[in-house]
Amino acid sequence: MGQHFQWVRSFSQEAFLSVFIMKKWVVCPPGWRMFGCNCYLVSNESNKWRKGQKDCRNRGAHLVVVDSTEEQTFLSGLTEERTYLWIGLSDSAVEGEWKWVSGSPLTLSFWRAQQPDNGGDSGGLGEEDCAHITTGTNSSNWNDLSCNTNLQWICESGHIME
Around 88, how many Cα atoms within 13 Å sit in the side-chain half-sphere? Predict the structure, then answer.
């Protein structure tokens, strides 16, 4: 009998917590945009990929990791005009082995035609080990670029309950 009571009490506590959490509002900080259960911020400044990564970390976020076609479509429409924005993808550890800032390997991609090309025949650009998205275009719009190029970036963070 004691076990049954404990199970009922535990179940009731979980149900209460679930209902309590569901009644809270999911919000993003001012200036961030919500998609799904995450918040996204386009930086106001331009800088190198690593500086963008550091800025996102300082905000409790990370450079965006694209997990779905729907998220890619959302990101492609973040700005009306064509804008190049760093995403959290690079092959700087091992050339040709693209990984997200989360450490997970690239499994879903939206590269432009003939990309990534590590600079191709450009010669003067050096290694192109970091990826950017081009907003205001179709959804197959990633390109690799030198990580030392100054671009804006997209931070991604989980939502905040209020």
Answer: 26
Query: Phi and psi for 69 in degrees, rounded to 5?
Result: -65, -40
4: left (phi over 0), alpha (psi -120 to 50) or beta: alpha
At 78, list the tokens.
């973040």
Q: Give the predicted TM-score (pTM) of the model.
A: 0.80
**Bridge partners for 61 per DSSP:** none
What are the tens digits of pLDDT across the range 68-117?
Answer: 999 999 999 999 889 999 999 999 999 999 999 999 999 999 999 999 99
Please provide the DSSP assignment of 26-87 as one string: EE--TT-EEETTEEEEE-SS-B-HHHHHHHHHHTT-EE----SHHHHHHHHTS-SS-EEEEE
Q: pLDDT class for 13, splitting at 50, 70, 90?
A: very low
- The 10 Å Cβ neighbour count of residue 60 is 11
- Spell out the domains of the chain, with CATH numbers in brackets: 26-161 (3.10.100.10)
Question: In Å, how far are 15, 35, 66, 148, 156 from 70, measured between CA atoms?
Answer: 31, 9, 9, 29, 15
